[in-house]
Structure formats: C-alpha cells, structure tokens
Write a structure and sequence with these properties.
This protein is an alpha/beta fold. The chain has 2 domains: about 130 residues, Udp-n-acetylmuramoylalanyl-d-glutamate--2,6- Diaminopimelate Ligase, Chain: A, domain 1 (3-Layer(aba) Sandwich); about 160 residues, 3-Layer(aba) Sandwich (Rossmann fold), CATH 3.40.50. The protein contains 10 helices and 17 strands. The protein has an 8-stranded mixed sheet. Strands 2-7-6-5-4 form a 5-stranded mixed sheet. Helix 4 packs parallel to helix 5 and helix 7 crosses helix 9. The longest helix is centred in the middle third of the chain and has 16 residues. It starts with a strand and ends with a helix. The model has no long low-confidence stretch (mean pLDDT about 90).
C-alpha cells in the first residue's frame, strides 16, 4: 500500500516552519497527499490542462499570481475552476506573502480545495516541502543486518545467523569506521532511487554481541562512531564456508552482482567465512574497491583487457 498523509498532518507538523496559514477550507483538510513532488501550474492557470499533475500540491508563485491579476476576472475564474475541479488536488499554496485574489478564492470554494498562504518564496518552499514529503512518503522496508559506513561508503552487512555480523562491525568500529544500525535497519528509497538506511529510535547506538550482551557504542567508542543514517551503496553477505565448494566462488570479480532492494539495484558481494579470515579487512578492501568502481575504475576489467591485449600481440 502506498504511503499517504493528509493536508491536516502537513499543517500540524510544518505550519510553524513553513509559515502556513489556511485561507479557506479548514473543513477539507482531510484531503490526501500521496506524492512528494509539488507542481507549479503555470500553463494550467492559462487554461492549458494537458499533462496537468493534479495529484500534487499546487504552488501558485509570483508568475502565476501576477498572471491572475492581469487578466479578466471571468477568464481567470474559468481557468482556475477547471484546474481545481480535479478531485485529487490535495491543496493550493500561494507563496511570497501575496493575498489571494477573488477568482482564486472563489475557484477554491467552488471545488472545496484548501487554500493556504505563506510568506516564503516559491523556491524555498518547494525545496523544504519536497524534502519533508519525500521523508514522509518514500517507500520503506525493514531489513536484518548491520549498517556501517566504511571510508564514506554505506555498507549493509548481512549473513547467516550467528555468522559474526556484529563482531565484524565491532572490529570495523575499532578501526575507525562508523555504525548506523545493528540488527534492524529501516531503509527508505529517496528521490533519485537512492536507498538511505537508519536505525529505529529504540535501538539507536546499541549493539548486541553474543557472549557479552548489549553494548552502548557511543559510550564505548565516542559520539564520532555513530551516524543517524547513511546511503546504502554496497551489500556484503557473509556466508559460512562449511559444506561449500569454494572453487565455485568468483575469483576475478568480473561479474557485477547486485541485489534488488525497493526496486533499486545495489552492488553486492558474497564473502565465505573461514577460520583465519579477517572479515573487517575484507570489507574495508571491498568498500575501497567499490568506491573506485563508482569513479569508473574497474580493476578486474582493466586486468582482463590487458591480458587479452597481450594475447592478441602474441598470436
């Protein structure tokens, strides 16, 4: 089910920050907001309604407002009345501190559309409002694992139960890296198909270490060892090597593997866990290697190309 909030909730949470004031329609504040994008209805105000995004909050800024004040009343009312007749418009916000004109008010009244004003400029309101709505309406999922930030790269560590995910994270913390969440990670897909992971408030800063119990990471390692959230750019799955044919594991890394989370493909690695392997160091190397890939440098492909080039020379 898609997330949604009401105009009433928006006003309750952000009236003070956005300086929002209801001009008309307090009885219609239960209208639903279902998308994080907002709309500047420039062409719609002139009567051109093709491709009009009615499901979005409508922002009437300086350009739209002055168009409405320089055209005949009947024309503006007719255009706005057609625009506001779309039943899924959540509300209309007039920016810049402009006083709503008579045709704007009457068109809103005619269609039971909440009309709101703010002294903020359109650019400022759109930026802040979009960020707020994106946080509220982004698709989300809860995952099991440990989320750490290694060399600036968000790494989600998952694996078999008891494989040592938390112990690996502790070793990474000792090496100067940063914890976001242990055991449970709340993941949201943000604008641009970016996944952001964070910790539930109830377990923030805490880790469970088998044989020791619950530890407070901030108290043990300092405030610099904690981050509230991080973009997820790599998934590492720790897998017990017992009973596995290790000869079948990828030795070159030429094949880019990904895992799909909230319809976003994230680079992934499977690391077999065997006695004597330093998992924290391996994850550090994997993180550095992924950062190089993000810049366009693919070591395995470069070596493969060099080998093929030499083979062609020797033919």
């Amino acid at each position: 089910m898609n997330k949604q909030i009401t105009v009433k909730q928006l006003l309750k949470e952000k009236s003070a920050d956005f300086k929002l004031k209801v001009v008309f329609g307090r009885e219609f504040l239960d209208r639903k907001i279902i998308v994080s994008e907002v709309n500047r209805p420039g062409l719609a105000v002139t009567g051109f309604l093709d491709q009009f995004r009615s499901e979005r909050i409508q922002i009437i800024g300086r350009g739209e407002y002055f168009y409405c004040t320089t055209r005949p009343y009947n024309k503006i009312f007719s255009n706005l009345n057609k625009m506001f007749s779309n039943k899924d418009i959540p509300c209309v916000i007039i920016t810049g501190g402009f006083k709503p004109t008579k045709p704007i008010i009457q068109a809103a009244q005619n269609n039971n559309i909440p009309l709101i004003s703010t002294p903020l400029d359109s650019a400022d309101l759109v930026r802040e409002l979009t960020m707020y709505l994106d946080d509220k309406l982004s698709p989300s999922i809860t995952l099991h694992g440990v989320l750490v930030n290694v060399y600036g790269l968000g790494v989600l560590i998952q694996g078999d139960p008891g494989i040592g995910k938390s112990e690996c994270a502790i070793e990474l913390l000792k090496r100067g890296h940063i914890l976001i969440s242990d055991d449970v990670i709340e993941v949201k897909r943000r604008i641009g198909h970016i996944l952001v992971g964070s910790s539930p408030k109830t377990i923030k800063n805490f880790m469970e270490v088998r044989g020791i119990g619950i530890v407070d990471v901030e108290m043990l390692f300092g405030v610099g060892a904690i981050l509230p959230s991080s973009v997820i750019e790599l998934v590492v799955y720790l897998q017990s090597a017992q009973g596995l044919d290790l000869t079948r594991y990828d030795r070159t890394g030429l094949i880019d593997k990904t895992v799909k989370i909230l319809d976003v493909d994230i680079p992934s690695l499977n690391i077999p866990v065997t006695p004597g392997r330093n998992l924290a160091v391996l994850i550090e190397i994997a993180s550095l290697n992924q950062r190089l890939k993000n810049t366009g440098y693919f070591a395995a492909k470069k070596l493969n190309d060099m080998v093929i080039k030499e083979m062609k020379k020797n033919k």
